[in-house]
Description:
Layout: H1 5-10, E1 16-18, H2 25-28, E2 40-43, H3 47-60, E3 64-67, E4 83-86, E5 93-97, E6 102-106, H4 111-119, E7 123-124, H5 135-141, H6 148-151, E8 158-164, E9 170-174, H7 179-185, E10 194-201, E11 203-204, E12 208-215, H8 220-231, E13 238-244, E14 255-261, H9 266-273, E15 284-290, E16 307-315, H10 320-332, E17 336-342, E18 364-372, H11 375-388, H12 406-412, H13 415-428
Parallel strand pairs: 2-4, 3-4
Antiparallel strand pairs: 1-2, 5-6, 6-10, 7-11, 8-9, 8-10, 12-14, 12-15, 13-14, 13-17, 16-18, 17-18
Helix pairs in contact: 8-10
Amino acid sequence: MPTSPLIRLRERISGEVVLPGEPAYPDLKNGFVHQGQPAAVVRCAGTGDVQEALRCAREEGLPVAVRSSGHSNAGLSTNDGGMVIDLRPMAEVELLDRGQRLVRLGSGATWGEASQVLGRHDLAISSGDTATVGVGGLLLGGGIGWLARRYGLAMDSLVAAELVTADGAIVRAGADSDPELFWALRGGGGNFGVVTAFELTASRVPGVFYAEISYPRSEAAAVLKGWRDYLRTAPEELTSFAYLYPSFGGDPMPLYLAACYAGDDPAGAERALAPLLALGPVLTKDVTPRPYLEMLGEPGPLPPGLVPVVKNRFADRLSDPLIDKLVAETDRLETLYVELRSLGGAVAAVDPAATAFACRGSEALVMTVLLSNDPGPEAEFGSMWSQLGALTSPFGYGNFLSSATAADVAAVYPPATYHRLAAVKARLDPDNVFRSNLNVPPAG
C-alpha cells in the first residue's frame, strides 16, 4: 500500500510532522486568533527540515504558511489544506560576541526568550511590546516597540539573515552578501523564503523606567494634543504610547499614556517623564524602574464571540483634527480601540531608501481595532477610515493588519518600494511559493 508523502516526510526530518487526527494537531493547527485546518504542520528542528518540508510541499502542490509564533493578525500563520512550516522549535538565542554585542536569534524564538537571555548581559534589542510574539515575523515587518525612538525599529539592528529559498537553496543576506535581498528582508516580510536565523547588534540597556498615567476621558483630546507637542521635543530616550479603550456600552474609560525611558538614570528619567504628568488632571500614575524584559507583556483574551478587525496608518503630523476625530469615534463606537505609537528619533534617522520599510518620517502610528461580529459596526468602521484617510498618510504598517489583500499591500509599500521588492521576488521566488503574506508577486 503506498505511503503518504507526508508520512514519508517524517523519515527525512529531525522534527515532527503533525497530521489531522493526531493528538498534537488541535494545539498546532490554529494561529493566535485565526482557525486553520492545514494538511500538515511540520515542526522544523533545523534548516535541513525546512528544505525537506519545502520540497514536499512543492511536489504535492500544497500551499505554504510559515509560522514563527503564530501571532499574525491576518491569519497568515495557518491555512486550510496546505502545509504550515512551524519554526517554533528553532528558538536559539546566542550571544556570539559580547564585545561587539552580536546576537544570533532563531526565527522561532519569542521576544520574551530573547530579552531574558540578553538581559543577563545588560543587553536588549528594540523589539515590539509582547513577550510571546516571534522573532521572525516581527523582524521581517519592522518592529515598533518601547525602544523605537532611542534604538530604532527591531529590523534596524539586523546585520544578516539566513534563509531557505523556494528551490531549497540556503542563502545568507547582509550588507556585503546579497545587499539587495538584505534591503528587501528589512520590511518586505516573508516574500522571499523561510528565514531561519537572524544576526543582530544588541544595545546596552541595563534597565528602563516605565510610566503609566491615566487622565479623565473628558480631557482626552486636550491631553493627547499636549502629549504630541511634548514628544516633538522630548529626548530620544523616551518612547510613549497612548491608549483609548472601548467602553463596551459602559462608562467611558480613562485615557492612558504609557512611556518607556531607555536608561537607568533616575534623574534623567524624572526630567523626561515630568512633562507627561503636567498634561492634565492625573487620575493614576505609576513610575517604576525595571529590566527591559518586564516591558514585554502578554496579549489579553479577546471578549467571547468578538473578532478583531485591525487597520492602521502612519500620521506624518498628528494634527488636531485627527486627534479630535479619533476621540469622537471611540465615543461613538463602543467596541473601538485606538492606540497611538510615537515615532521620530532613531526611526526617522534612517534613510527611507535604506530598507523596505519606507515610512520613516511619520510622527506617529495610528492603530485602530474594532472588536465585532456584526457587519453593521464593521461598515461604520470602514466609513470612519474613509474620513480618517484625509488626515493620515496613505501608507500603513504591515504587522498590524487583519487582512492581506492587494489593497493592503499597496498601502504598506509605496510604488517605488513595491517595484523593487517585485524584482527581488522574481529572482528568488519566481513561482510565488511564498504568497501567504503581504504578497508582492514576482515582477513580470
